[in-house]
Design goal:
The complex is a heterodimer. Chain A is mainly beta. In chain A, 0% of the residues lie in helices and 54% in strands. Chain A has no helices and eleven strands. In chain A, strand 5 and strand 6 (53-56) form a beta hairpin. Classes of the chains: A mainly beta, B mainly beta.
Amino acid sequence: DAGVIQSPRHEVTEMGQEVTLRCKPISGHDYLFWYRQTMMRGLELLIYFNNNVPIDDSGMPEDRFSAKMPNASFSTLKIQPSEPRDSAVYFCASSLSSNGANVLTFGAGSRLTVL
Amino acid sequence: GENVEQHPSTLSVQEGDSAVIKCTYSDSASNYFPWYKQELGKRPQLIIDIRSNVGEKKDQRIAVTLNKTAKHFSLHITETQPEDSAVYFCAASTGTASKLTFGTGTRLQVTL
C-alpha cells in the first residue's frame, strides 16, 4: 500500500479564496482523521470519520471549515473563505479499528499558505 | 476533555547520552499512550506506544514508562544518535475508537 495520500502538498492562495485539501486513506482502514499543525497550537484534531460517517467535528474551528467523506477511499477538507490565520500544515491520518483505531498512520501533509 | 502537557519543549543532549521526555494527562479514563516522532518537514510517525495494563515497554533504545496513579508517562531514549534529532509528541486517548490528544511536542537535538 502507498500509505495515506494527500494532495496538494503545497498550496498558496489569497485571502478569501476557497481551498480544498484531499486525502486517500490506506485501503481497508475504517477511521480517517484531519489534523492541523501550527507552531503555536501544535497538532489539533479537526474532525474524524468512522466508516465514512463524521463522529466528532468539535475541533473544526468555524463554519468556514467543512469536511466530507463520500466513500471509503476519499475525503476532502474545504476552507471557504480562507484567511491568513488558516495557514498551517494539514495532516490526514487513517487507522484500522481491529488494530486499535487510535494507532494512526499520517499522510505527508498539505502545507497551506494564505496571503 | 483530555489535556496533555509535555516537558521540556526543547532538549539538547550529546551523542551517546540519554534523553527523557515527560507527559502528564488529565483524564483518568485514558488508557492508550503513544509517542510519535516527526523529523523536519516530515509526517509524524508512531515509534512506541503503551496501554494502561502495562507499566513499561521497551523497543531497542527507546522505552516508555507509565504511572497511572500519578497520570504521567515518559519516553526514554538511550545511547542517542544524531538521527534521533526530531520533534517528539506524546498523546493520550480513552478506548480504541477515540481521538488522540497530543502534547505540544519536544524538540530533541542530539549534538556530536
